[in-house]
């Protein structure tokens, strides 16, 4: 995929998440894989209102999340984790939002959030009767620390990571696949929070 094509897709998906209230302020970031050998991603630029991105508000980064050449905008501060997730999982797209339900669920379940016997698990790529543990890692400003924590608990069958007191990452074959998974996971976590008591 070309960078300009990726920019259009990332801007449209970001606007959609922002309208859902999952990218408040300048929070959240999205990426799509442009090529695998070597790994290249298009990632949203840092610090912008993700509900108002232009297709040019993206940056091409390498497998460390660093810009591949002189580009006018800085990549997302979390580009390094996007690249790590794409590299380890083989996903074609990684999405990160600041929806509230995942953060509340992680606060209550810092060792991992258990989801079980729910029809919506099928929208997360798992059988309805399965037992899924969504990993939770402590927040860090160092993407290598977050990446190491992600990789240590990585289960190829579970395409999500919750960063405590921060937000959630979900990945898929492409941006639409990742969105469908995220929408279902957010529903599952809202359900879990409600059953456990509270929001
Ligand atoms: C108020 S958002 C704090 C930074 C963050 O967690 C985030 O998702 C946005 O960072 P970016 O560098 O991608 O704008
Ligand atoms: Zn974030």
From TrEMBL:
Is ATP-binding set as a keyword in this record? no
User: How many and how are cofactors bound here?
Assistant: Binds 1 zinc ion per subunit.
Keywords recorded for this protein, A-Z: Amino-acid biosynthesis, Lyase, Metal-binding, Methionine biosynthesis, Zinc
- Enumerate the GO terms in the molecular function aspect: methylthioribulose 1-phosphate dehydratase activity; zinc ion binding
Cofactors: Zn(2+)
Please state the pathway this protein functions in, per its UniProt record.
Amino-acid biosynthesis; L-methionine biosynthesis via salvage pathway; L-methionine from S-methyl-5-thio-alpha-D-ribose 1-phosphate: step 2/6
What is stated as this protein's family in its record?
Answer: Belongs to the aldolase class II family. MtnB subfamily.
Q: What is the name listed in the Swiss-Prot or TrEMBL entry for this protein? A: Methylthioribulose-1-phosphate dehydratase
Q: Which gene encodes it?
A: mtnB
């Amino acid at each position: 995929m070309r960078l300009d094509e990726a920019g259009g897709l990332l801007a449209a998906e970001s606007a959609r998440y922002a309208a859902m209230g999952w990218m408040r302020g300048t929070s959240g970031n999205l990426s799509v894989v442009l090529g695998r050998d070597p790994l290249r991603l298009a990632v949203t630029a840092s610090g912008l209102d993700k509900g108002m991105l232009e297709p040019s508000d993206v940056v091409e980064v390498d497998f460390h999340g660093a810009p591949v050449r002189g580009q006018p905008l800085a990549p997302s501060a979390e580009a390094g984790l996007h690249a790590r997730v794409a590299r380890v999982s083989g996903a074609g797209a990684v999405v990160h939002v600041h929806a509230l339900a995942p953060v509340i669920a992680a606060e209550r379940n810092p060792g991992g959030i258990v989801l079980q016997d729910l029809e919506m698990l099928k929208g997360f790529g798992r059988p309805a009767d399965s037992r899924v543990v969504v990993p939770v890692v402590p927040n860090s400003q160092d993407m290598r620390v977050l990446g190491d924590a992600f990789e240590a608990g990585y289960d190829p069958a579970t395409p999500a990571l919750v960063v405590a007191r921060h937000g959630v990452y979900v990945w898929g074959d492409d941006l639409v696949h990742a969105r469908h998974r995220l929408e279902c996971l957010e529903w599952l976590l809202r359900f879990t929070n409600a059953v456990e008591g509270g929001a």
